[in-house]
Amino acid sequence: MSLSQQIAQFIASGFVNGTIYALLGLGLVAIHSVTRVVNVAQGEFAAFGALLAASLLAQGFPLWPALAIAVAASAILGGGVHRVAIRPARQASALVLLIITIAVHLALKGILLLLWGTNPYSLPPFSAGPPVRIASAVLIRQSLWVIGITALVLIILYLFFTRTIRGKSLRACAVNPTAARLVGIRVERMGTLAWVIAGALGGLAGVLITPLALATYDMGLILGLKGFVGAVVVGMASYPWTVAACIAFGIVESLGAGLISSNYRDAIAFTALIVVLLWRALSTLRIGLIISEEAAQE
Amino acid sequence: MELRERYEEDLFLVRGALAWTALIAFCAALLLLPRAAPGYLLFTLSLIAVNSIIAVGLNLLVGYTGQISLGHAGFVAIGAYTAGLVMTKVPWPEPLMAWGVSWLAALSAAGLVAAAFGFLVGVPALRLTGPYLTIATLGFGIAIHQVLTNWDRLSGGRTGLFLPKLLFGPWRLGERQLYYVAIILAGLLVWVAFNLVRSHVGRAFVAIRDSDIAAEVMGVNLTVYKTLAFAVSAAYAGIGGAMLAFILGYLEPQLFTLFESIYYFSMIVIGGLGTVPGSILGAALLTVLPQQLAALKQWLPLVYGGTIVLVMAIEPRGLYGRWMKIKLWFKAWPF
Description:
The structure holds 2 protein chains of 2 kinds. Chain A is mainly α.
């Protein structure tokens, strides 16, 4: 393979990974904008969805119902985490809430370890067939499923946030919780809804990636972090920019791993992250702001 | 409540005959213990001492200065590997090695190198707050772990790095001697921490935690004190890491994963954020607990996570905060 072909291949696989990160990043943005919580446990929803789907399939469920049940269960898990761990402490400081989500991450990981053990699980690709050539890159069919389903989800989310009362209420809570409460929106309930959406998006990311990479109980943190990278780079505020940033991050990560060294995959990715964060901080500083939660809330 | 009339009275770290008796008894017990205790108990106590050093350092950063670090295992790793490399790669002349200069130098080098890295991580912290800082430190921890795993020529990679036995004069430091070194080192660093948090430096840390803008308005130089907090905290972690390397005699990158970072973090949250004794309590608890629950290893993440959620919901000031409340209740009894 020539270098340009290789680069095309890296960009294509980075794009696919990036869409997965985007699903997780979107969940993080939904949670953060409504409940002001940075959810370290976001990736655990993906791990849970993936492992549950694999088990259901092993029990003899057909593929699509198994996937649907797994995503729905992840959504319920998301809502449950909000009710059990986050809501009782909603008056606490951002630091405490962050500590709680770290703890939730540990606890969920522990539960996954107890239920599924350390073995890796896999799912079959959603449709069989030879890989597809796009330009000079070769993509297996599952990658197309990942991109297609993510695009579909984005459209649904867009319609939900712009055309339905519930979606508009969620946005209202993000913009100004007090005003939202004044016009009769139940902010607490919207918080749970945001967590449910995040859980579903996480579970979906999990079942989409499992045919490409094996699912293990501890896959969540790194996945969630990478979604977080995309969300943070654009300030945890905008849904479309989060998707763009996550995909860009996936491509950078893939190029770094491919061209420099795959052993240093995460190291390269997170070094790039620190550079971007600093660059963003310095550029916002010039107009008189420090990157902080206050800035993200604006 | 006793009344303090003079400033000097307020300066005492240990107050009252009872506290002095307790402290002296505790120190005497620690010093005399090796005569009676079996080896594994000494090993556990040495580990508690090491973890206390790391936890106290982390608490200076998280509990006092309010800067979350989820990459602390990275600093511990830097300290441990610096010590390991100074011991193995530097051609020490025979007399220096025999008189313990090599490992004392390794210990100091570990602290200094880790502090330098702490300073480097602290620089972005000047511009990042909250989740952004958390994620940056987390990335730092992951990057250090990957570099150690893959840079074989530096770290020995997955096969690990073996340290020579420590020598001091005619003695070869075994389990018992290492226990003394760890205990004395921990005692010293805890004492430094106690004094640090009562000095103008510690007050500046707390002011930054409570409101960095207000602190700056009051004349606290954020650049100096934030990077200082990172450097001091990393130095503690580095010295703890070097001591860990001496006790284990063997290093591998898997000792310094993200899980370890969260493990150190759990210690200070469970023990009590923003308290020095709380860090030690948390370190002791979380060192002993996994050993006792070795058969239930799979339950550990769930237990840690559940405990932190519970602590945050019931007693956000941790074990030490609860202890203070109990003490206050007895002091004020029968009211």
